[in-house]
Design a protein that fits this description.
Pfam families: DUF488-N3i (PF22752). The protein has 119 residues and is α/β, with parallel strands linked by helices. The protein has helices at residues 32-35, 48-56, 62-74, 78-88, 107-118, and strands at residues 2-7, 18-21, 39-40, 93-98. The chain has one domain (2-118). It contains 5 helices and 4 strands, in the order E-E-H-E-H-H-H-E-H. The protein has a 4-stranded parallel sheet, covered by helices on one side. Helix 3 (62-74) packs across helix 5 (107-118).
Length: 119
């Protein structure tokens, strides 16, 4: 199984395979029809408190944010992460869809790493 990441505002393509929205909130201004989401895994997204802290932080805090999110994935959201991994195993290609602007420093990067370890 292959995992990819893609911004929610980029056009959906058949080459994306199974598309999973990994944000807790639906992306602003994005029509559900245009998004072509197969599964919304909001329970694996960062907690509202962590998300707000990240938006208020500087880019220098990326490592701290990533570590805190990993801790959430290992503890509070571990059952949801395991459920998601079980679902993804049924697909050859999965694209994790997220709304963040930064393509390298966002929760989908951390989630992709955590899922890769489970798969």
């Amino acid at each position: 199984m292959q995992l990819r990441r893609k911004r929610a505002y980029d056009n959906a393509e058949a080459a994306d395979g199974f598309r999973v929205l990994v944000d807790r909130l639906w992306p602003r201004g994005l029509a559900k029809e245009r998004a072509e989401i197969d599964l919304w895994a909001k329970d694996t997204a960062p907690s509202p408190e962590l998300r707000k802290a990240w938006h208020a932080a500087s880019d220098d805090d990326w490592g701290v944010y990533a570590d805190r999110y990993r801790a959430e994935l290992e503890n509070e959201t571990a059952p949801a992460l395991e459920e998601l991994a079980a679902e993804l195993k049924q697909h050859d290609l999965v694209t994790l869809v997220y709304a963040a602007h930064d393509e390298e420093r966002n929760h989908a990067v951390v989630l992709e790493q955590a899922l890769s370890e489970l798969l």
